[in-house]
Each structure stands twice: as C-alpha cells, then as structure tokens.
Amino acid sequence: MNTTDKCRICGNEISSFMTFGNMPIANGFLKKDQFDNEYFFEMMPSFCECCFAFQLIGQPDAKLMFNENYPFFSSLSKYMQQHFKKFADDLINNYLEDKENSFVIELGSNDGIMLKHFMNSGISHLGIEPSSNVAQIAIENGINTISKFFNESLADQILSEKGNANIIFAANVMCHIPDLNSVFAGIAKLLGNKGVLVFEDPYLGDMLEKVSYDQIYDEHVYIFSASSVSSICNRHGLELIDVQPQITHGGSMRYFIAPIGSNKISSSVNKILKDEELKGFKQVSKYNQFKLDCEKSRDDLVSLLTKINSENKRVIGYGATSKSTTILNYSNIGSNLIESISDTTPLKQHKYSPGVHIPIIPYEDFVKEPPDYALLFAWNHSQEIFDKEKEFEKNGGKWIRFVPKVEIL
Ligand code: JHZ
Ligand code: ZN
Is the shortest distance between the CB of 351 and ligand 1 below 6 Å? Predict the structure, then answer.
C-alpha cells in the first residue's frame, strides 16, 4: 500500500474530505475459493490546495492491480477502436513532420489499440505496458512493446538506445501513476527541446458536474483538471499548450504539453484555467459539496433498487466495469439487489465481482434470459450499447442509469 499525508506532486500536507469506506481491487474479479483472502483498503480522496491535484490518500501496490491477470482489454469496444484510430491520425498528421525519421512512445499501450496505427504507417515506435498479458497481445501483432513500468530510469535507458522522442502519448494512463514526478522527469528528458507529450484522462470537471464518482477507484490515483496538469508540467520545464475535451470515458480531457517556450500556446489553455477557477475547482468547498452529491447519488440508487426488488423484478448489471466496484461497495449493493452482471470479457466471466461478490455472466446469458431492468454500469459506452440493444428494449427491457442522476430511462 502506498499511503501519503503529503501531496504526491508538490509535497504539501493533504487530508481527505471524505471516505468511500473499504474497497477491494477494482479489477480483482475472483473465484469463490479466493473470497477469504480478498484485499481491501480504505479509499479516501483528497485535494491539494497548493497544486490542485485531486488524489487518493492511499493506493494499493501497483502489482496488486496491474499484473498478468489484468482483465481490461481496450479493443473490446468498437467505439474506442474508432476513437484511437482518429487520435493516432491526428497526431501523425499534425505533430510528425518527418515520419521516416520520427520516433514515438506510448505509455500504457495496452493491447496496441492505438500504436498499431503508427506501426502500419511505418513509424518507429515503442509501447510500454506493465500488464504482461495485454502487452503480449500487442507483441504478437508485431507492435514493439516492453512490459515494464515507465519511470525516469527507464527513460534514461530508452534515450541512450533510441534518442529523443517526437511524441510521447498516453490515454487513460497518467491518472494511474502515483510517482508522476519521476514520469514527468523522464518524459522531459525524452522530449529534449522540441517533442510533445499528449495525454488524455477522465476530466475532473465532468466528474464533479455529473457526480460520476465511480471514476474514483484504486487504479485512478489522480483525477486531473487543467490547473493540476499545468502545475505539474511547470515543475518539469514543460507547459500546457492546448486542451481538447473528449466524450470518451464519460468526459475526458486531452492535454498537449511541450517544453516551455517551444510552442505557441492556444487560447483554450487560458480559457479553461479561468473557467476552473470560476467554477471553484481550486477550493475545498467544491469537494465538500461533491461529498454530499455522492451520498445522495448512492442513497437514490439503493432506494430505487430496493423498490424494484420489492416488486419482484429482475435486475442485471450491464458491463462489469472497474467503476462498478466503487458503486457497489460504497452503496453496499450485492446479489440481494442485482442478480448478476453481464460482461463480454472472457477473463471476467464465471467469476465474482470484487468485494460484494455478484456473479459475472457471459453476455450470451443476458441475451438468453433478459432481465426486467439492466443497470448501466458501462454508462460511458451508452451509445454503443443502445445501438446494440434495440431487441432488449423492444421486448420491454428498461435501463437504469445513475449518471448524471439515478433514473429509469
Ligand atoms: P470500461 C477501465 O475502466 C480501467 P472500466 C482503466 N483503469 C481505465 O482507466 C479505463 O478502463 C480506460 C464490458 N462491455 O471501458 C467490457 C460489455 O460487456 O467502461 C468491459 O468489461 N458490453 C484502465 O473497466 C466493460 O464493459 C459492451 O457492449 O470502467 C467496460 O469497461 C461494452 C461496450 C462493454 O472501463
Ligand atoms: Zn500538491
């Protein structure tokens, strides 16, 4: 366990503004014989008034979360495949002047969903992915990948073997890394005096506005705002040069970063920094309100499911997301209220959900015996799911969602 009472970025003293109670490993789907040895930690978010980083006080050791059993495969979502193709095309067209002599690095390259487009364009590339089973899929597809955690010393090694990188990118990765100072120091060295770092992660603004507190789980040690990203960049001789909001993962932000003075700064940077200030993202009172919003969302969901249960209707969860681990454990919802959770990932199926132990069933079983209500745990993929589930709706099936508020659709 990596626990701190000092901000991981700036060292300022921090304390928690709320607790979500004891949480298991969010992606720790388990078998019955593992119930007795399940790992729990108290999940407490906090906010640094000095550098504005929203972070967890304690995070389980990395190996407990990212290992050869990691069950999240980016390529399972068709929409995400398109998203990463477009992301890759944007970078190739706008940030690589001389493709033949360029070198790009992806941090947390998962199964190669994005890096394959660089490979297909003949661009020299390297993926760094600590979860060996997902890294293996990329390697089998010919994508240059090493299975390690990125830090400053790995950056030194890459620099001496391959030289500077033109682009370093990461999607849904930075917010997972506790020692970001080491990562940013390594990135700054690899970029030299002209490369760019581009990364995207769930955006704090979306989480606060939609009360999507399920973005907070063991893996997400940070939820970034532009203000907090700008602050960490400045510590490492880098600066924010552009921001672009994304609809993925329930509302994300893409940050463009470069060595200080090397690039023109887009007006959107100043705009978002001002906007965050006006909306109170830099003040503790905002987070005290968020705590109350989380409690209301939790209580509303428990009341709705209890009512449905009293009517003897069946509820199945749709998508055994990492996010659902927070919802279920914080709300103490178990198989008394939800009979099972359907998921397309073979590695999750026939196991039980972390902490509250709801059975995970293959998607085919959901289709065979559709419930009265499907609880949309994968709400961030709503469009893709609604497009696919016309039959469920036609047969009278209803959706329950909890973001942005608890309701039956
Ligand atoms: P999804 C993971 O979060 C973990 P999760 C991680 N920490 C992170 O940051 C983001 O991803 C990027 C299933 N599904 O994408 C597949 C269906 O069954 O919301 C997945 O198990 N049917 C790295 O886990 C889950 O739902 C479907 O039609 O919260 C979706 O997980 C679809 C679309 C998905 O990420
Ligand atoms: Zn700080």
Answer: no
